[in-house]
Amino acid sequence: MNKKDKSSKGSETVYFSDEEGAKNVVGDAILNLWEAVNNLTRLRPRRRPRYRVTIFGSARAQPGTPAYEGTKKLARRLASLGCDIVTGGGPGLMQAANEGAQASGRGNQGSIGIRIDLQAEQKVNPFVGQVYEHKTFFSRLHHFVLLSDAFVVVSGGIGTTLETAMIWQLLQVRKIYGTPLILVGDMWTDFVAWAKRHMLASDPPLATPEDLKIPRCVPTVEEAVEIIRGHRERWAREGRAPAKERRRKSS
């Protein structure tokens, strides 16, 4: 009986003059679309064919500055290891990372940009080989998660902090796991120290000590490269293992 009532309600005609009814129809449709999208994102390959590192960083840094050149060096080193480089596709340190990926000599197909379509947003930087465009920050952030095997964060502002916090929380609640989140430079060491000082001192604590160990803070790009090197080697070994052995390790 309930099922029939629900089906009958869904087939009723709603006219635009019924503002409340029209709002309910639109709201239900949006919720159903989100449910469909969420179900589709559950479908993933057991293993991506290429190891991809997302680099988050400021759009404001200029070529020739230490931050720009350091990020370019980081991406070049990672690309030389066989990593694809993923960025937001814009200027600043995003451009530095894409430029470094191309400078490795692997061509531009391993240099990826995930762009947000905003009127005030700059054009895709010239070092992006593959570009994806999103209308919302939410779908864009989700795309970074779906595409990446590791995350490296360099100097950045509010947008970079948002991206970092999202990945941090997804690792905390194990929506993603076994994925390095590496923060490069003093600003992130200070950021994590601030979180420890305030979140752990609260009564009750606002996070656990284990939560605050999730990001790995390193002072140099060289140390970030070595962490990624080790993780990528494990990724490659697991890809060569028989399927039965991989299932046993993951269980």
Rg: 22 Å
Shape: globular
Quaternary structure of the protein: single chain
Provide the β-strand percentage band.
Answer: 5-15%
Q: How many H/I helical runs?
A: 9
The level-1 CATH class: Alpha Beta
| Amino- and carboxy-terminal Cα gap | 42 Å
Order of helices and strands: HHEHEHEEHEHEHEHH
Number of domains: 1
Which whole number gives the mean pLDDT? Answer: 87
Query: Can you summarize the main beta sheet?
Result: 7 strands, parallel
Low-confidence stretches: 1-8, 242-251
Q: In brief, what are we looking at here?
A:
By secondary structure, the protein is an alpha/beta fold. It is built from nine helices and seven strands.
What does this structure look like?
This protein is an alpha/beta fold. The protein has one domain: Rossmann fold (3-Layer(aba) Sandwich), CATH 3.40.50.450. Helices cover 50% and strands 12% of the residues. It has helices at residues 2-11, 19-40, 66-80, 93-103, 137-147, 158-172, 186-199, 221-240, 243-250; strands at 52-56, 84-87, 111-116, 130-134, 150-153, 181-184, 216-218. The protein has a seven-stranded parallel beta sheet, sandwiched between helices. α3 (66-80) packs parallel to α8 (221-240). The longest helix is centred in the first third of the chain and has 22 residues, at 19-40.
